[in-house]
Design a protein that fits this description.
By secondary structure, the chain is mostly helical. The chain is built from three helices and no strands.
């Protein structure tokens, strides 16, 4: 749970930065957020969460 919240905050900050630097339009940001929202409700959510957890667990071993 803590990893998920941290990743949401990280991706949110990146999205805000891209919007402020005009590297990303508001329509593209809305589409990306909508895609992530709907992807989370599919069967792909668990493998994505497992992959993110494995990456986060591997970082201290570097």
């Amino acid at each position: 749970m803590a990893v998920t919240v941290s990743l949401v905050l990280l991706f949110g900050l990146v999205l805000v930065f891209l919007l402020r630097s005009h590297s990303l339009s508001a329509g593209a940001a809305f589409t990306a957020a909508g895609f992530g929202f709907f992807l989370a409700s599919t069967g792909a959510a668990e493998p994505i969460n497992n992959l993110a957890r494995a990456v986060v667990d591997a970082i201290p071993a570097l």
